[in-house]
Design goal:
It is a single chain. This protein has one domain: hypothetical protein yedk fold (Alpha-Beta Complex), CATH 3.90.1680.10. Helices cover 9% and strands 28% of the residues. It is mainly beta.
Length: 201
């Protein structure tokens, strides 16, 4: 699966911003997720995830994992997009909900974690969307631990075990400052509003 859900009804994927997160409050009714919530629910395995907390002039990344170090599964939704020439693209998104008390100081949202004993319920397409939606809730407060890590995680080129090692510096030292912009000589058009989504096309 490619991360970033592309609804099956999209005509041209190049004009559609992929949906990386699906807000749990609206997955039953929102057109982009409605069909997937009924018939195409999935589990996305992980052993941890990153979240960013505002710190000074930037944001401090934190690594979040289970206290016992065990893997877990996010609630996910998937779709298959079929193109005019017969091409197919399978994509997925992670369902999110309000943060629990442990993670709320870092970020207001968190991924939905499906308990192991509810895997079958979430995955079974015979289970209606309303029943499955009962699993969309914050994780228990004692499930996760979180600690600051280096801002090296902000760079795609970095991919190593050091990215999850605790960062012991002051928060302001962990922030990557934005480069200063030169004053524009001429008036420029304001940038388009960022809708929080990205495009892989």
């Amino acid at each position: 699966m490619r991360w970033g859900l592309l609804p099956s009804w999209v005509k041209d994927p190049k004009t559609f911003s992929l949906l990386f997160n699906a807000r749990g409050e609206s997955v039953i009714d929102k057109p982009a997720f409605k069909a997937a919530m009924k018939r195409r629910r999935c589990l996305i395995p992980a052993d941890g995830f990153y979240e960013w907390k505002t710190a000074g002039k930037g944001k401090q990344p934190h690594f979040i994992r289970r206290k016992d170090g065990a893997p877990f599964a996010f609630a996910g939704l998937w779709e298959t997009w079929a193109g005019p020439n017969g091409e197919e693209l399978e994509t997925a998104a992670i369902v999110t909900t309000n943060a629990n008390d442990t993670l709320k100081p870092i970020h207001e949202r968190m991924p939905v974690v499906v308990p192991e004993d509810a895997f079958n319920l979430w995955l079974d397409p015979a289970v209606d969307a309303q029943t499955a939606a009962a699993l969309i809730a914050p994780a228990q407060n004692d499930l996760f631990e979180a600690y600051p890590v280096s801002t090296q995680v902000n760079r795609v080129a970095n991919d190593n075990a050091a990215l999850i090692e605790p960062f012991h510096g002051a928060p302001e030292e962990a922030v990557v400052p934005k480069p200063a912009k030169k004053a524009a000589a001429a008036r420029v058009k304001p940038p388009k509003k960022d809708n929080g989504q990205q495009s892989l096309f």
